[in-house]
Amino acid sequence: MAKGCVAYQGAPGSFSHEACAVLRPWDEAIGHDTFEAAIQSVHGGRCDCALIPVENSQIGDVQPARRLVDASGLDVLAEVWRPIRLALMAPRGARLSDVRTVESHPAALGQCMGTMAALNLTPVEAFDTAGAARAVAEAEDPTRAALAPAGAAEIYGLSILRNDMQDSADNRTRFVLLGRKGA
52, 61, 92, 153: least surrounded by Cβ within 10 Å? Predict the structure, then answer.
């Protein structure tokens, strides 16, 4: 199969990026800052398809992604549920007792509210899970941590302080693959 590209929202190491690598390994995964930009890349012909998260087993609809998918006019070519395991990561040398704030996408924060409250951590919204990991790595502040897939820690040089931060062991997200009509 010829190599095309699949758009996703987020930075390398995000759940959407991981899903693209598993579900479309023959395509180049192209990250975008917003769900809207990922969808527009398909409309504009820059990417063949987009993989967008629309629902999570713990928090329900992933917004604004769900709304944008419904309004996109693109065909849903496939859908898949993927397990979501969130890791707490911080700069190397940081300890869990140092951390005060946790940065991540609002959907990821919503999946870990009980665990964060038990650890007395303050949530801070970011545009993306892996983008939050990148920002925490760049800041080199041991009081800041990120919630992201474990692979993001390796990409951005962070240490994992705790795995499985999600409140439910059966945490899953449904992704839809979108393409142009008739493509």
Answer: 92
